[in-house]
Amino acid sequence: MDSTLAAELADLDAMGQAALAASGEVSAAGLLDAAILRLEAARGLNAVITDAFDRGRDQAVALDQAGTLRTGVAGPVAGVPFLLKDLGASLSGVREAMGSQALRNHIAPYTAWIVERYLAAGLVVFGKTNTPEWGNHCTTEPTLFGRTVNPWSPDITPGGSSGGSASAVAAGVVPAASGGDGTGSIRVPASCCGLVGLKPRRARTSFAPSGQLLEGLAVEHALTRTVRDSAALLDVVTGSAPGDPYNAPLPAQGFLRALDQPPAPQRILIATHSPFAAPPTDPRVAAAVESAGRALESAGHHVEPGAPSFDTDAVADAIAVLHNVSNVQLYNFARSHLGRDPREDEFEPSSWVMMREGFTTSGVDYADAIEAIHSQTRHFVAGMGAHDLLLVPTLLAPPPHYGVLDQPRGTTRAFFDVEFAHTGWTTMANVTGWAAISVPLATTEDGLPIGVQLMAPEETVLLQLAAQLEQAVPWAQRRPSRWLGAPAA
């Protein structure tokens, strides 16, 4: 593969690359070879921590030989190189460390339902991306693999927990990569890396054959550079597996198809402040949110200031308890894998705080946390009144530096107090089960990305509004300093 062509292909989103494969201009194997060239050039980003080149090549060759890419029925992302987050996206026979020293030699025994959907859609999987231990942090700098570099600047975090995926997409290694979101883990890295990050509504996708995560707070999707790619990938994974604890109603039409239609006028609440105790929102972020509001007003929507209220202490306490119990599950999983009790030094210090508290969490504590989540969801929804959406910051300030969002704070609640002081509203989409999308509408004076977030009960209207914003404030041609594609003309 010619390096010049590999760079030129990086400029295309997933649907653009798939269109080339469908036309026969470039084979799936050729698209993969180009992505591997870009990945090798991007090793310094430390975005990809496990290579699966041989299985990717086998899959690409099989797609080419089957001839399905050129029949016109292969789907809008068939043949496109794709990376999996090393958490929640198990691929049988491939290392699955989940960012944990205790699981450094763990091999996935099965392929997750969502990965099977990716493969069935013709996405060519060839590696796994870096993630913090068990997805606990909104930054990606695990002890096991080291920090992932943000292509926009080596001084700022790419976010987390889907930071490896975000870095790879932002740099142009691939046009899209998988992610997961429990308190903001798709949207935070999207904001830090200048990407589109959609957290689907609860139960839009399945964790099968595993059980639910964080009592339904977590959901999986992807990081992309364009809204249409996010919609196309959501079509790929929409649905539930037999026996899933939650089920989301199927949309009236496909998400990608819905982008062909403008949304009905929406009633939007806009807030620049944080619901949690936090420093004032950075003026540059507030200005980005207000600019988004004006753009939506110009598109025919009704925007007015306001935000729902809820008991922030009850939410933060519940989030802490659910994470404590989740980390005890990690401990037990590691013990089963190792055949012995894991050592404290085989976990991140902040994870160990959660485990230590989880060991003494009672069943009543856990039940009360679940009750609090549902109770505060009702307060939140009631506070929306007759409004359809909420427009807020993704992060309350531009991307933070490393060593901020992964540190132990003595207690799990104190840990989340620090996180929420940076993320503000993100966790409420997980608490309520609403869908939420972060779009890269602005930059700082020195070019760092600023994300703006929309939240609503379902995804179609979010994607439609995001597409309107994408037209009003085009972001696709912004390029980080570590861009692997062709230089701007």
UniProtKB/TrEMBL annotation:
InterPro entries: Amidase (IPR000120), Amidase_dom (IPR023631), AS_sf (IPR036928). Its EC number is 3.5.1.4. It catalyses: a monocarboxylic acid amide + H2O = a monocarboxylate + NH4(+). Residues 34-458 form the Amidase domain. PANTHER family: GLUTAMYL-TRNA(GLN) AMIDOTRANSFERASE SUBUNIT A, MITOCHONDRIAL, TRANSAMIDASE. Belongs to the amidase family. This is amidase. The lineage of its organism: Bacteria, Bacillati, Actinomycetota, Actinomycetes, Mycobacteriales.
